[in-house]
TrEMBL record:
Belongs to the peptidase A8 family. This is Lipoprotein signal peptidase. The active site is at residues 128, 142. The lineage of its organism: Bacteria, Bacillati, Actinomycetota, Actinomycetes, Mycobacteriales. Its EC number is 3.4.23.36.
Amino acid sequence: MKPRRQPRPRADKIRARITLAAAVVLVAGLDLGTKEWAGRALNDGSITNFGPLQLRLAFNPGVAFSLGDTLPRAALLGITGLIVVALAFVAFWFTRSAAWPGVLALAALLGGAVANVLDRAADGLVTDYLHTGWFPTFNLADVFVVTGAAALAAISWRASATTTAEAT
């Protein structure tokens, strides 16, 4: 059986955590910048077609798929804020032993979540602008959240499959 991955040496932990923090800031900044752009460029109701993807401005009072859109604004912000804080603690702890792909996947997930919470904090709404016609309108932060979560699932599955193969 393969032993569990050992914690990194101190310098590597610090480097991984700095990378995590920088990537979270980069992802959140990129998303918030594109939301600002979308709010200005698409505020006249215009729609820009790029084949299967359209740019169309929308505002979501809920979370994914507008769930919770009837909750009080403060409650929704508080709940999502607590989830993001918990995720940040998990990410900080995880970097003590995670390989770089895991650190970057966590950064994508956390950066997207932070960006959506910051966007919601301003007026209780999240700015969405990517539309496919068959799926709810979403934003770049949502792409980062889903991609980061999928990458973490794949990393976990691969590690589990490797451990199982080595045990037999």
